[in-house]
Amino acid sequence: MTTFKPLTPLMHSVYIAENDLRQSFKSVRHVVWSLLFPIFMMFTFSFRYGAIGPDPQFLSFLVPGVVGMTAMFGSINETMSIVWDKSLGVFDRILAAPVSSTSIIVGKTMAGAVMGFISSFVLLIIGYLLFGVSFPNIGLVLLVIVLASFSFTGIGTIISGLASEPREAMMLSNLLRFPMMFLGGVFFPVESMPMPLPYIARALPLTYATEGLRAVMSGNLAVVLFDAAVLVAYTAGTMLVGSTTLMKIMTR
Amino acid sequence: MPSENAIEVSNLTKYYGKLLAVDHINFTVEGRELFGLLGPNGAGKTTTIRMICGMLRPTSGTIVVSGFDVSQKPEEVKRKIGLVPDISNLFGELSARINLEFMGKLYGLDKKTRRERIDQVLELFQLKERENDLVKFYSKGMHRRLTIAAALIHQPEILIMDEPTSGLDPQTARLVREIIFDLNKEGRTVLLTTHQIDEADRLCQRVGIIDHGQLIALKTPEELKNSTGSQRALEIRIMNGIDQQKWLPILSKAEGVDHVFLAEGKIRVLSKDLPETIPTVVNLVSKNGGKIENISVAQPTLEDAFINLTGKTIREEPLSKEDNLRRRLSRSGMR
Among A86, A108, B111, B204, which has the highest number of CB atoms less than 10 A from its own CB? Predict the structure, then answer.
């Protein structure tokens, strides 16, 4: 009766991602709230060193940084919805359906990446409209954003696998995100950090995302490609760890 | 290969760490049967169900559903089963229709079939008018109806329901029982769990009594009632007995009394030798300053059988530490 369709597992992932995003985008209010934080950060830091008004040179440093940071917040948040799903019991609904564990993980990852991409893209536009910061090569920018978003979903799945309830997930994610935000080259250049902070910064995916975005601006293609490669490696690594921890709780 | 039996559970065992949640359970649910697992909270019912549905891996033992081994063909098994969990786990931020759409997609229904089935179940459960409302605004009864509807979207052969009427008001509970009865009459196998004795009695064709992770009896409700043997029941009401409860420890010490408990506001005394027990009980009451308002010999109930088998009433509180842990673990989803 049921004919085998090779695309079925992928379609399951798409449905799960669609369902997740549908909930996230359900209310405009929800979307606006989640974007206010990076927008405020961008505003706050646009005033620098007590100078009157934003400093244009610093703005072209700040905007790519905040765009990368937004990708991080968006995609980790979205992937962490697994923990909420678990606590509300809706995750059971998916577990009871004829869907493979891999499809579930891929679906959640897709949702996270899409969320990271969309929210950072919105910040990109806001950065352009408010501060006039534009990127010369939009294709490359989108590539870096997509790769960055994927690299952060892995962190989201790791948190989802470790946390047993939403509050724990929030604490864990803040523990990771806030240091990453300040060390990942969003507001301060990594090169200007005192030792040994640059070493820590070099271990964070956000550093490569922000560096990659700035390299697109300065037209340094070699750096862009290097950062893209690091982000791909990061995605593979965190997704491997994340799916292992998640798989463990799904097939207990 | 299709088999006659809908669900075959053999030697099913589950440990949560060191805690034994389900202890070598064996039972078979026949095709088209309405089968109930009766037991107190924390007995291991939910854990058993989660293992049958392929959501939890057994420590040992096998489960075969419609001829498919759950551990080898989990997705085939999941396709055959519709699960109604004890808490309504729908997506509150989405409408009823979108919730059902999502389920239909996960079960691989095409667009046309989805639309047909969704219209059908919404109609059946009288949710059509509210189909576009967010589920979080639904009442408890509507939640439960939609949860059942969602489990039927792929027209499963087997319906598994965890405490389908718990927490519902009496009218809604009755409605849900009628729904279950009808679904079974249509030819669906139903496995349900309950901690309500009268529900098991009225609804189920066969009842398995489960306690501390063990299946201690499996019979029809009638057989269970008759299993009390020569034991008879006595119903007593004591005058001014605002607190009938306090008589329980007094009466339980009387000679010839097997069990004493409260049922529907009356004291129920189980004894194998009523002619001897009646005077003893009457004397004991008057000696303790009570007057008997009403005393009568009663028909055996399923609760009598339950007490004989487990040594306690089903609503006895509080839960033991172990049962409570078992309950928490089975309900916490995954951890």
Answer: A108
Q: CB of B262 within 8 Å of any CB in chain A?
A: no
Number of domains chain A contains: 1
CB pairs under 8 A between A and B: 77
B145 to B90, B142, B265: CA distances (angstroms): 11, 5, 32
On chain B, the residues whose CB falls within 8 A of the CB of A96 are: 53-55, 78, 81, 83, 85
Which residues of chain B lie closer than 8 angstroms to A99, CB-CB? 75, 106
CB contact B91 to A (< 8 Å): yes
**Which CATH code fits B229-299?**
3.30.70.920
pLDDT in tens, chain A (252 residues): 455 566 788 899 999 999 999 988 877 777 788 889 888 888 888 776 555 666 777 888 888 999 999 999 999 999 999 999 988 889 999 999 999 888 999 999 999 999 999 999 999 999 888 888 888 888 899 999 999 999 999 999 999 988 888 999 999 999 998 989 889 888 888 888 888 888 888 888 999 999 999 999 888 888 999 999 999 999 999 889 988 888 887 766
Q: B332 CB near a chain A CB, below 8 Å?
A: yes
The answer to whether the CB atoms of B94 and A90 lie below 8 A apart is no
Q: Which fold has domain B5-225?
A: Rossmann fold (3.40.50)
Domain boundaries, chain B: 5-225, 229-299
Q: pTM score, two decimals? A: 0.85
Q: Is residue A197 part of a domain?
A: yes
